[in-house]
Amino acid sequence: MEYLNPPTDRMEERAAPAATQKSVAPPGFSIDPTAILRRLLRKWWIIVLCVGAGYAAAKLYLRYQEINYEIEALIQITEDEDTGVNTRVILGDMGVDSRQNLETDIMMMKSRGVLSKVVSDLDLAVSFFAEGRIRNSNLYGSGGVPVRVVAAAPSDDIYGELMTLRVLDSTRLAFGLEEEIDTFRIGLPFTSRFGTFHFVLNERASRPIDDLLVTFYNPQDLADRYADRLTVRARPNSNFLQMQIEDEVPQRGMDVLTSVIETYDSIMISRKNTSSFKTLNFIDERIDEYRNELNSVEQRAEDFIRENNLLVDIPTNLQMQLGELRETEQQLATLKLQLKGIDNLAGYLQNGEDPYRQIPYSADIPSVNIGGFIEQYNQLLQQREIYLATASPENPVVQAVEEPLSGLKNDILDAVVRARQSMQYDVSRLNNSADSLLNEVKSVPGQRRELLSIDREQGIKEQLYLFLLQRREETSLTQAITASGVHMVEPPSNEGPVGPDPLQVYAIGLVLGLIIPTTAIAAREVLDTTIKNQTDISEYLDVAILGSIGASEEENHIVVKHGSRTAIAEMFRLVRTNLRFVAVQDKNQVILVTSSMGGEGKTFICINLGASLAVSGKRVLLVGMDLRKPKLGAYVSGLSSSDTELPGVTNYLTGFAELEDTIHPIPDHENLFYQPCGTIPPNPGELMMGNRTVQMFEELREKFDYIVVDTAPVGLVSDALQLRPLVDLSLYVVRYGVTDRKQLMLAADIHQHRKLPNLSIIVNGVKRGANYGYGYGYGYGYGYGDGDGYYVQES
Predict the structure, then answer these.
(1) Rounded CA gap, 58 and 69, in Å?
(2) What is the predicted pLDDT for the residue at 10?
(3) How far is it, in rounded angstroms, from Cα 231 to Cα 251?
């Protein structure tokens, strides 16, 4: 029982002198550029493969990606000089930068309303494709589409889907998704689960393709996509706009730019003609009124002559008087017409339903001031409508346009009042003159006088009717020659492909192929906290390293045999030699082998270290003291059940077997024996603390030169620590790429507090080419290299 007591003086003498203990700090995050470079060099083939994959991916991308073409056009925005009113000058006088006006033009061109009309006019919501082996070819403008879409109302779930369209003959076609194709009549509307469609034959198709793919797009979404593609920029210090758009089909891109310009031009003309439309409506109403009156007067004259059998000859002096009277009454009728127009204009201005509506203006209003005011007022209203298309009413630019409108409206009302007063005076004067002439005509006989009166009224109505017809023609002509101010300087043209750029795509593929694996390998190196070299151990643990054992590829767990010259066998022989340098009084009879956790190869080290000692002529016993997950028996016998079926340690400790019955020879290995675990006990810790454990080791010391003990990992259970008084040397196994550096804190604590005697380190699982590698040396300076004749390859 003396071994279970605190260490005696004799035990302290057996222990190796403790090295100066360094202060061990927990492993932290660090970056070792040299280690990263070494890992990159070891994984060079992965980098080469990824670079090749990046190049291949770039090549495939270019093969299947649509090529975009850049289409450009140049237009000029000018004002209509014939109107006499320059809106940009007016806005400049109000402090509004004229460049903002160009920005408004740009926003109008890119608005959803303009692009939606372009999509509708060009039928862009439907695209036809010819199926290809690599990619499908868009048939826009190619003349290969045998049918036209008269009407289409597709369901929302097929937008963007490639649908099959196959012309069977001149009257039938097959249409639908690949798995749901139905036959329909050409020229008749039809409805399916995909929506309602109407296809007709395209007589203009020059090279019809019977098998097609067709895709329907949401018109609003398509208009938004074209708005994003369209770029309109104002050239500095000019009224020129540079227009650009990218499209996979050059002809379609040119058609889109042309349609945008034409649509914007028609919208601007329509807005400028708003006043003319209202004026024409006013004149047409008056023409209809006077046409009816003229027809009525002519019918009265004809009926009066027929009923009274009158001759149409009129004396000369009477004709002169009638001519003067007709001229006076014609002037009077013209003034009354103008006065009625003035009254209508005043009523229109005083109507408060919509304060921002265009004022109709007729050319028969005599006041020049009124015409100029109305023209200027309508111009500002047009500008306000353009701004409101892209801005809110609270926008400072919109409010800057609205400020002068009320003043102009008051000026127009004042001019209307003054013109009405002047016209009323002229009407009174002409009435007096007409009354005087009428008294002179009254001396003519009654029937003749009545006929002259009808004839005079007919002439007046006819003159007014002709006058209004002339005004309508003048207004229509003005409307017809209205210019929007959009002038095509350079029509849309194809400037060539712009993307994707092959050199750029290849560069991106190669760079990504280089960066991604390099970053991944470097990140793995940085984040990998496992043991990879001797420095990782020496930073946290000041303990002798007996040697490094390479990774074994053999299925047999015993790699050290008599006469073997493999690299791993030589490594174990080196460890056997190094044992003498850490011997206590030249005796390392009982050697304990443990590790931080399972899977680090402590049982493998235990078996082959024992084998290397056995081939030197020493009697060696391998003891399976891992009473929880025993593996020793299975490793040496090849039978997984040998640890528990054969009598072993637990059988002796519980008194059910004699010591000699628990020791078994290892076939083909002279001087090498093993003692398996035996039956797994329910209380392994308490069992190892019994007196029979001390008795067993005392007897074994007398029978064997070396006793190598395989124990449970100290990072999981404390079984190995209970054997401290019974062992001479402790070997702590760490495994390359498995043991975490944080677990060295446990080994440091064991060494610092002498929980196990004479602790040394063995590095297991070193891979070829690693820092512990076969050509880098290990232990205390002994090294071997492939092909140098010191050892042979493992068979």
Answers:
(1) 20
(2) 35
(3) 17
The pLDDT of residue 481 is 61
Q: Which residues contact 60 (CB under 8 A, 6 or more apart)?
A: none
- Calculate the dihedral angle through the C-alpha atoms of 588, 593, 594, 599, rounding to the nearest 10 degrees: 160
* pLDDT of residue 591 exceeding 90: yes
Longest Cα–Cα distance in the chain = 174
468-509 pLDDT, tens digit per residue, is 777 777 767 766 666 667 888 899 999 888 878 888 889 999
Q: Which residue has the higher pLDDT, 451 or 634?
A: 634
Strands 672-675, 620-624: parallel, antiparallel or unpaired by DSSP?
A: parallel
Give the number of other CB atoms < 10 A from CB of residue 549. Answer: 28
Quick one: how far is CA 650 from the chain centroid?
A: 67
Size of the chain, expressed as the number of residues it contains: 795
Asked whether the beta carbons of 572 and 612 are under 8 A apart, the reply is yes
Between CA 782 and CA 573 the distance in angstroms is 11
Are 738 and 747 a contacting pair, CB within 8 Å?
A: no
pLDDT of 741 above 80? yes
Q: What are the tokens at 420?
A: 């009405």
Confidence of residue 9 (pLDDT cuts 50, 70, 90): very low
Beta-carbon neighbour count of residue 701 at 10 Å?
A: 15
Q: How far apart are CA 582 and CA 597, in angstroms?
A: 25
d(CA 713, CA 375): 100
Residue 589 has phi, psi (to 5 degrees) of -70, -45
Residue 131 backbone class (left: φ over 0; alpha: ψ -120 to 50; beta: rest): beta
Highest mean pLDDT among 268-282, 300-314, 650-664: 650-664
Angle between helical axes of 98-109 and 250-272 (0-180°, round to 10): 120
Residue with tokens 């006058």: 467
> What is the C-alpha to C-alpha distance for residues 367 and 40, in angstroms, rounded to an integer?
91
Produce one character per residue of 561-591: b if its CB has 16 or more CB atoms within 10 Å, e if not: beebebbbbbbbbbbbbbbeebebeeebbbb
pLDDT of residue 734: 92
Instruction: Tell me whether strands 172-177 and 68-77 are parallel, antiparallel or unpaired.
Output: unpaired
Tokens representing residue 323 in the block: 């001519």
The 10s digit of each residue's pLDDT in 524-560 is 888 888 887 777 788 888 888 888 888 877 777 888 8
Q: In this predicted structure, which of 28-32, 135-139, 787-791 has the lowest mean pLDDT?
A: 787-791
Q: Indicate if the alpha-carbon torsion angle 116, 122, 128, 134 is positive or negative.
A: negative
Contacts 24+ apart (CB under 8 A), 409-415: 409/349, 409/377, 411/373, 412/345, 412/349, 412/359, 412/370, 412/373, 412/374, 412/377, 413/346, 413/349, 413/350, 415/367, 415/369, 415/370, 415/373
Q: How far is CA 147 from CA 143, 166, 203, in A?
A: 10, 10, 8
The one-letter amino acid at 503: L
Instruction: Kindly list the distances between the CA atom of residue 714 and the CA atoms of 446, 526, 541, 549, 602, in Å, as whole numbers in the listed order.
Output: 145, 28, 16, 21, 11
Residue 334: predicted pLDDT: 78
Q: Is a pLDDT exceeding 50 seen at residue 82?
A: no
- Flag the least confident range among 219-233, 437-451, 659-673, 740-754: 437-451
Instruction: Identify any residues that bridge with 167 across adjacent strands, giving them in sequence order.
Output: 173
Give the mean model confidence (pLDDT) for residues 437-446. 59
Cα-based distances in Å from 488 to 452, 480, 669: 61, 19, 100
User: Which sign, positive or negative, has the C-alpha torsion 245, 246, 251, 256?
Assistant: negative
Contact 365, 372 (CB under 8 A): no
What is the average pLDDT score of the chain?
78
Residue with tokens 């770029």: 231
Whole-angstrom distance, CA of residue 132 vs CA of residue 115: 31
